[in-house]
Amino acid sequence: MKKICFYLWLCAVAFAGSARAQGALDGAVWGALAVRANGDTLLDVRSGNLMVPASNVKIITAGTALETLGRDFRWDTNLAYSGTLEDGVLKGDIYIIGGGDPTIAAGGDADAVFAQWREMMLAKGITAVDGNIIGDPRYYDGLPEATSWQYEDIGFYYGKGPEALNWYKNSQDLKVEAGKAPGDPVKISVTGPQLPWMRFSHNSVTAASGTGDKLYYYNSDLAPVGSMRGTLGFDIKSKNEQTSNRFPAYTCAYFFHKYLQQNQVNVTGCYADITPDGLIRTDLDTPGTTKAAEWIEMKNIGSSYSIPLSQVVIEMLHTSDNFYAEATLQATALAVRGHTDFASGTEAIEEFVENIGLDTNGMRLKDGSGLSRANYVSPAFFVSFLDKMMEAPSYNVLLEALPQPGYGTLASYMSGAPQSVKARVRMKTGSMDGIRCLSGYILPADGNKENTIIFSIMVNNSTAASRTIISELDRMILRLAQ
Question: Which H/E stretch holds residue 347?
Answer without folding.
Answer: helix 342-355
